[in-house]
Design brief:
elongated, 5 strands, Ribosomal_Su5_D2-typ_SF, ribonucleoprotein, Ribosomal Protein S5, domain 2, ribosomal protein, 4 helices
Length: 129
Amino acid sequence: MADEYIDTGRRKTAVASVRMRKGTGKVDVNGREFKDYFPLELQRATAMAPLTQNNLEKEFDLVIRVKGGGIEGQATAIRLGIARVLVQLNQDLRHGLKEVGYLTRDSRMKERKKYGQKGARKRFQFSKR
């Protein structure tokens, strides 16, 4: 068994790199404490959901680097990264994580602005006269 597992999670423009090693449950996000980085309990619960589901919160230390996107997108990117690392660690967890949707990458991205238009779909106002 390797002593450290690394994987990546993505959501919109947020990218999270998750490093997991045996420990006591300490979580470090971009050099800050987990509770400082994610002030809302809902965001913390979203990010740690794969560990909570398998009762592994206190068994691993996490070092997470995340950039891009907003705070919610980053939390979801971290969730995917943690789920992928858990599957590397133990293939038996894959079915449970996949069933709940933690291993599915949310591929929805912002649609690009088209030339000659005001936005992705919105047009400039039409003037008949």
